[in-house]
Amino acid sequence: MNIVKTAVIGAGSLGQHHARILGQHPGSKLEYVVDTDVKRGEKIAKANNAQHITDFNFLIGKVDAAVISAPTQFHYAIAKPLLESGVHCLVEKPFTLDVAQAEELIEIAQKKNLVLQVGHVERFNPAIIAAAPFVNNPKFIEINRLGPYDPRTAHIGVVLDLMVHDLDMLFYLVKDKVVSLEAHGAKVLSDTEDIAKVRLKFANGCVADVSASRITIDRYRKIRIFQPDAYISVDYAGKSVKIYKQKEGVQKMTSLLDIEIKKPKIPSNEPLFYELDNFLTSIIDGKKPAVAGEQGRDAVELALNILKHMVF
What we know:
By secondary structure, this protein is an alpha/beta fold. The protein is built from eight helices and 15 strands. The protein has helices spanning about 15-25, 40-45, 75-85, 100-110, 125-130, 160-175, 270-285, 295-310, and strands at about 5-10, 30-35, 50-55, 65-70, 90, 115-120, 140-145, 180-185, 195-200, 205-215, 220-225, 230-235, 240-245, 260, 310. Helix 3 (about 75-85) runs parallel beside helix 4, helix 4 (about 100-110) runs antiparallel to helix 8 (about 295-310) and helix 6 crosses helix 8. The termini are far apart. The mean pLDDT is about 95.
């Protein structure tokens, strides 16, 4: 199978971009756009040479794969019957509302030998792709993700809405489990936490400070990595990377002149393209995706544990 018959469920602010890319990708034939909003669904479907339908159950037996970009509370109810019927699924983040739902979906995908990917798109951010080869045994990581309030996500707090991206990123970079955490939050504009600050300690000794806010006017998304041989600064939003290292041959630092700054070349495609390309390639080649259900589950589990221990 070299061309994957695809569908996008949920034609909202993110789903429309899934549809755009799947409608253009050479490995995909976008067949359907599913949305209960007929006007919007028809518009997005028409723009991408697909059909609009309102019931995702219609997809069973008609497509190979589906991207589930509906609100989080519907992820499990949509993904379960599709996986049970043999449809590969990419489920947007956060994966599910609880760990039990995630475990069940993972089990179904394993039994059916299906690709189950979770939409932690920052893994495919060109800046992260460029920085990852230089990350080696980090000792301290600081991540800040700040942005404006969006009423569409008021039903979940900033931890599951935004910070979950960075929790997945920490597992990717540190490659160990969390052994302790401290979490503080505040409700400002909604009934859930709108700002959160968390300190995580990993089994290998790495410490991470993570901040997320949705009450900031400007978008600010940066990660700083401190390790024995370098300091790495990554701008998620600006898609830039700077690596500060001691120059080769320097035995002892005496001034800033002994430091070299590397700026790796940044890939040009958008993160969502790389994510969907990984999804399609995993289906065609029968391989596990870069961010499988297990990684999505781990991020949800840590996010829920943070919320459980959060001090307001």
